[in-house]
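Q&A log
Question type: sequence-to-structure
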Amino acid sequence: MKILIVEDEFALADALRDRLTQENYDVDIASDGVSGCDRAMTGAYDIVIMDGMLPGKDGTEIIYEMRKAKVTTPVLMLTARSSLVDKLKGLDAGADDYMTKPFEVEELLARLRALIRRNYGSEDDVVRAGNLSLDRRNASLMNSDTRQTISLAGKEFKILEYFLENPGKALTREQISERIWGNADNVEYNNVEVYVSFIRKKIKFLKADVCIRAVRGVGYRLDVEAVNDKEATAKD
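Response status: OK
Response body:
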């Protein structure tokens, strides 16, 4: 799971990132409203933790713009604004949950888990498609029929996890770059192609009934398919 923290209190943002990283979340930080809005609007994150009072653009305004643009990423507001009016404004703008500062980190983690269950189902240690199983605890990939297992490198793991969390959905090269490298503008798209090629070879090695298809003019899509269809598909 990839989380964006939009928070201008640097010490708090760093402390949150450290704790969330310990919980095996992948975390980015934006320290002002403008950059936070730009990142949140990409749709590349699974959860956004949003401060209310930010330099450049207000947190409530960012959430409103996200929802207007049909960006459905769940948002947890984390702000010093504690009045009922402020809470209602945040929730009416499209926030999924609202916490006030000061707060207990354990409660924040529990609320994040609830948001994940509500929006994505249970956050298991293992994510599956067809007979392919990805173990998040040790970045290993397994054919659940044969029990054959292979290890994944860091970027391979993150990209395949992204595909497995979005089966059947076409993911653009821009989305993959933003998700994995954090800024699509600074990454050559052929990097994505190289890593997808690595992942395809490992899926083929495992003889899994899953394939990453090229979607012409868009990017890639992970499908579950018959074994005898994979050879032709993997050539795209």
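Response note: Residues 126-233 form a domain with the Arc Repressor Mutant, subunit A fold (CATH 1.10.10.10).
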